[in-house]
Amino acid sequence: MTALQKHNRPRCEYFSIFWRLGSRYMHNRPRVHCARYIRGARRWRQVSRVFSTSIVALAIFGTTGCGESGPSRASVQGMVTWEGKPVENGTISFIPLGEGVAASAKIVGGRYVIPESEGPPVGPNQVQIFGMRNLGLREAGPPHPPGTMLEATEQIIPTEYNNSTRLSVDIQEGDNTCDFALPEKS
Is the pTM of this model over 0.85? Predict the structure, then answer.
C-alpha cells in the first residue's frame, strides 16, 4: 500500500467497498466520508420533501379560496311546544329542499335561536323536531360497569315530526320567527 493509498483510504466502513474495488472506482464514490453525514443527508431529504409538499398544498388551497358560495342564509328563532307545554330539551333542524346546507339548533326551555351565519338557506325547508323528556337517573347496562348511573331520556315527539317529517317552512331573507305548536298525540 502506497502513501497515496493510505491517504485516500475511506474513513468509514460504509465506503470500504469502494476501497476494495480499487482506485478505478474511487472517482465514483460519494463525497460524504462518514455515516453521520449520510443520516444527515437522509434527514435533509425528508425535510425538503415535507417542505415542498407543504408549499404545493398551500398553493392549491390558496387558489381555491374559502369564500361564501351557495344560497344566502337567514337567522331563525322561535318556540316549540308539545301538548301545549314548551319542549324542555331537544333539537330542531332545517333541511333545504333545494340547494344549501342544513342548519340545526338545540331547544332549551321551548326556545331555539339560529344566527344568520349558521342559519338555514333562504327558501323552502323541511323541519325536523326531536323532543326529549328526562326520566331521571337509571342504572346503565353493558358495556358500562355495574352500578354506573346515567341520565335516562325518552323521545316524546312522534316520527311524523322528525324522521318522517311533514313540517315545512319557507325561510325569507333577514330575521325569521317560526313557532311550532305540535298537536297532542292521537
Answer: no
